[in-house]
Amino acid sequence: MQEKELLTSIEKLFDTKIDAVKNLLSQAVEDLDKRFNTNTSLVASQTIALRDAAQKATDIQAIALEKRLSAMNEFRATLQDQAINFYTRQEHEVFAKGLEQSFKSIDSDLRILREARAEIAGLAKASQLYLTFILALVGAVSGIVGLILRITNVG
Fold first, then answer.
1. Over pLDDT 70: what percentage of the chain?
2. Predicted pLDDT of residue 105
3. From CA 94, how far away is CA 86, in angstroms rounded?
4. What DSSP line would sit under 67-109, residue for residue?
5. CB–CB of 27/20 below 8 Å?
6. Distance between CA 71 and CA 78 in Å, rounded?
7. What secondary structure does DSSP assign to 118-153, as a single string?
8. How wide is the angle at C-alpha 119 spanned by C-alphas 115 and 123, nearest 5°?
9. The whole model's pTM is what?
10. Where are the domains of the chain?
11. How far is CA 105 from CA 21, 49, 92, 98, 102, in A?
12. For the chain, what is the mean pLDDT?
């Protein structure tokens, strides 16, 4: 009977120990569940925050890209307007030939004007010469007339 009591007491001891181990294991499982749930909710909230931040960054980048592309399109339109407004090499050559002919015409007119000015200057010098000659002639004639009058009055 002692053996039976001993077995019963060992059995009770094992049952107690097994219950204690079960309690410890269930407590550990509950703690792990709590930690897991806490960590899962933290990871989920961080994932949502990261997703929201990535979405905001993507939206901001999309707006910036849209503005940049709009500016590039405006620049392209400006370049296209300039290309339309610029005249071609052929048009420039026609314009340059017209200018060259105008310059030749102006140069010819300028040469004619210089010659006319030189001619007028020559005529002015000739008229001064003629005036001087007439004055000298008048002086000589008056001198001769004065001599003749003196000679005729003396005698």
1. 96
2. 86
3. 14
4. HHHHHHHHHHHHHHHHHHHSPPHHHHHHHHHHHHHHHHHHHHH
5. no
6. 10
7. HHHHHHHHHHHHHHHHHHHHHHHHHHHHHHHHHHHH
8. 170
9. 0.37
10. 2-86
11. 120, 82, 20, 11, 5
12. 85
Tell me the two tokens of residue 127: 């008229």
One-letter amino acid for residue 115 of the chain: E
95 CB contacts (<8 Å, ≥6 apart)? 87
Question: DSSP character for 65?
Answer: H
Question: Given CA atoms 47, 52, 55, 56 in this order, what sign does their dihedral have?
Answer: negative
Backbone angles phi, psi at 88, to 5 degrees: -80, 170
Q: Which two tokens stand for residue 11?
A: 């059995």
pLDDT in tens, 27-82: 988 888 888 888 888 888 888 988 999 999 999 999 998 988 888 888 888 888 88
